[in-house]
Amino acid sequence: MKRTVYLLSILLVILIGTYLQYCYCCKSDVEQEEILINYENKSLATFSVEAGDFKVESDDNFDFDKSSYKIRKPVSASVKESIEQLRRYLVEDVNRVLKIRGYYAAFEENTSIFPNLGLARANAVKNYLRGEGINKKQLRVDDSQLTESLPDSVTIIKGATAFELDLEDENALLERIKSLRIFGEELQEEPIHLYFKTGEAHIHLSVKEREQIRKISEYLTQVDEAKLLIVGHTDNTGNREMNIKLSKERADFVKDYFIKNDFSTDAIETRGVGPDKPIATNNTEEGRAKNRRVTLVLK
């Protein structure tokens, strides 16, 4: 009798546990679905571009996971078809530029190297469009923070980009290039120095550095044959040959970090110079710490 009661008790516990798990899982699925449906603002959730008599539109758009700048795959066939029509239009009208505006919500964490997720998302879309054959010099990026209130439980940001075709005359383009070249010269005089511990997953950047990186991205897009040179440095402790190798590895790590943030591989060069170009004395720990760095310059 006791054994029967014992077995029935175990069975009851299992049944209750199974029921509670079912209720919890189903509730979570419904809540997530409702969040996604309620967020689908048609002005953002559709890929739409128009200028004069030209118009392309898709019911889909580029979507992103919460706090991510990586485009969710796969991109729909209708968006790809719209992009192909847009590409042909831009080939015919070289004075047109496509402005890509990336959106982000206040509750999202910016894990990119850009000033905010909006710019990071716009940059990701820009590089996707380049891969689809659109001339990079006809692409511009911008950002905007969503003003509507969204629940923190949102897991997918649907349609986080908007598009606008605009005219840019030759004088405006020349002024843009001139401004970028001045920035490149300033970076030659005062390179960006990055400091991080070997093995860190992220590089911690200041507000100023993030803004400079945004300009670097624009420079690489707009200036002919532009390159980002990433140079690794060490202090003079230990073997010089090993320091050269270590400095190159650190430069390559930064290159990989930029590529993960949708920078083009062929626009980046790396070099390791070991202890050969110190910016401080190697006679103190503070000086040696300053010399262990990676610098960014434009070519």
From TrEMBL:
Protein name: OmpA family protein
CDD domains, sorted: OmpA_C-like
Assigned keywords, A-Z: Membrane
SUPFAM superfamilies xrefs: OmpA-like
Chain ranges of the OmpA-like domain: 183-299
GO cellular component, one term: membrane
InterPro entries per UniProt: Bact_OuterMem_StrucFunc (IPR050330), OmpA-like (IPR006665), OmpA-like_sf (IPR036737)
Acyltransferase recorded as keyword: no
Organism name: Balneicella halophila
